[in-house]
Amino acid sequence: MANIDHAPSRTMLNLLHVLPAFADEAELRLNAIVELNSNTINKYELITETGHLKLDRVGYSSLAYPFAYGCIPRTWDEDGDPLDIEIVAVTEALVPGSLVEARIIGIMTFDDGGEVDDKVIAVLADDKRVDHITSYEQLGAQWVKETTYYWEHYKDLKKPGTCKVNAFLGVEEAVRIVKTCEARYNSEIEAKLVN
């Protein structure tokens, strides 16, 4: 698990700004902060200033998240939020707010109402049940169809037709996008942090 190189403090650390994106880049392991589990319509988001979870909204339809979902520390996507991560093939529900190490198996590029809002696709790094999964393609064509359907329709009752899955891409492209989001975090957010 990720170790925090920080002395004990009387004030709470915000893991979003303390932990690196990669727990082990050579092993394709990311740090991920869990925001929600599969089978929920509630959308929780990490408050970037405090690191607490907030109920952002209750879904407008009965479409539930088909995977665990969260964000990657010290990244910033073009939509003005940390880079998102879908954690697939989770056997037992994860605790929202917890930190997990997830291994990259791909990325889904996504347009949400005109904003880039990409989603890294990953499995739990220490779950032997998914050690054999090294690419999103191994999840099968049906998984791709269901995931595409979810993302293109989850806002239909609020803002129909505003979401578009552009592509599912491999590990190399996922790593490139994570690094781009790390660089954006360093240029746009790092200087605004206060101690």
Question: What can be said about this structure in brief?
Answer:
This protein is 18% helix and 30% strand.
Key attributes of the depicted protein:
single chain, 195 residues, alpha+beta, Inorganic Pyrophosphatase, 10 strands, 18% helix, globular
Describe the structure in your own words.
The protein is α+β, with helices and mostly antiparallel strands. The chain has one domain (15-188): Inorganic pyrophosphatase (Inorganic Pyrophosphatase). The protein is built from 3 helices and 10 strands, in the order αβββββββββαβα. The longest helix is centred in the C-terminal third of the chain and has 18 residues, at 171-188. It has helices spanning 15-18, 141-153, 171-188, and strands spanning 22-24, 29-36, 42-46, 53-58, 68-71, 84-87, 99-112, 115-116, 119-124, 163-169. The chain starts with 14 loop residues before the first helix and ends in a 7-residue tail after the last helix. The radius of gyration is 16 Å and the shape is globular. The mean pLDDT is 94. Strand 7 and strand 8 form a beta hairpin. A 5-stranded mixed barrel has the order 2-5-6-9-7. It has a two-stranded antiparallel sheet with strand order 3-4.
Give the helix proportion (percent range). Answer: 10-25%
Could you describe the largest sheet, including whether it forms a barrel? 5 strands, mixed, barrel
Spatial strand arrangement across the major sheet: 2-5-6-9-7
Total number of distinct structural domains: 1
Give the SSE string: HEEEEEEEEEHEH
List the SSEs and their pairings.
Elements: H1 15-18, E1 22-24, E2 29-36, E3 42-46, E4 53-58, E5 68-71, E6 84-87, E7 99-112, E8 115-116, E9 119-124, H2 141-153, E10 163-169, H3 171-188
Parallel strand pairs: 6-9
Antiparallel strand pairs: 1-2, 2-5, 2-7, 3-4, 5-6, 7-8, 7-9, 7-10
